[in-house]
């Protein structure tokens, strides 16, 4: 009893120490951790903290693309003249209702912004300018927000990369956080994420119910921007597991108890059989790459069909008290077997087991395995602004295969004789590529297409009446309508308002109730109505006008 009390107090002390000293998480060399978060919408994660094995020359861009693909996600990207590689959106269909944290909503209100749940550029993606005029994707590495594009930021072993969706102030909501949380209660997610990623990738840990439950609890807390340290009540379980729980692989009998079998008299209950009291195994330690030999105590042996009144041969398997030990058994570990022979009443050996005769089953001829036709396309998606141009899909098919390419909406994209995509108009559609070959299964690939309106020229502005300005622009016959954005801030960070024009034939708009003698900055863009939302073109360059008194 004293030994058990000592062990119990040691475990409690270890858990308490986790909160006194910085967490030390077992991380494999040449690995980074990445997450994709939408906490500003009250929806936690698109991708939970995930461990990624690094490759030579990796940047935030290449790591992000690999993780998105591994999680069946895609990204909308552009090359920006200022930042280079720019992430516009990440696929996030069926998002559902959002729940913006109160402190983020207060920041939005303080900047005279409004939340527009209808302002969704593409319903399949979480995009820049969704919900507010200042929203978009930002990334940080080790809690530092680089001022360069993701393709210019190298990734090193141990880095923690976080993609986060901001709603206001170019990351003000992310960098400042909830002002009601004291500095001592703020979460340092970098250290926490390393533990979460390690636990998540280790199936032997996640298969243990107590650890899995603690993981789910911690993920729910970490995905909430208003969480505090005191909310993370289950983290001690995970950190202790990550540091101190070894994973046992093959198991065998301990030296000195090498007997693997026993013979017992007729009628001997299982409780009277002498079993080995310990085992020997291989522990893959977390802090040491070597393999250490360990003893596992408190082993019990069980055989479900053991019958002391039935002479025969019985196999007993070891049972571990895993939840009270520092070790867990790998799911595919080989277990030793202790063979017990129950003798007959006269002490003779039981009759040998004669396997029942089994008539061979008739062999059913199987269909030969048929493989699919090899087919690939260079463009997994098409997402470009309208222009009279032809796009090569870079189709590669198996030699001899017949390839057909079709567009679901030829008014958006048609297919020419060379199987290239010809842009015909704005909107969304899908290209289907089919490859057929005799003796093989037909392969079909789908390419989603989004053709956004062209970028508008800068608008013409005029203020000829008090507190009014007139905005005029070029007609876009391939658009449904237009969106005008104006502000007294040339960076459109505060006092931002929008006007939606519902008809493409309209090319002039008068904006009223403006501040006298103030300078207003204006830009606009075209949009095309599609199923599930709107496709927006890029913003025009900015123009400004001083409002008449």
From TrEMBL:
Residues 1-27 form the signal peptide. Residues 347-369 are annotated as: Disordered. Keywords: Signal. PROSITE patterns: FN3. The keyword Kinase does not apply. The lineage of its organism: Bacteria, Bacillati, Bacillota, Clostridia, Lachnospirales. This is DUF4430 domain-containing protein. Residues 455-549 form the Fibronectin type-III domain. The keyword Signal applies. Coiled coil: none annotated.
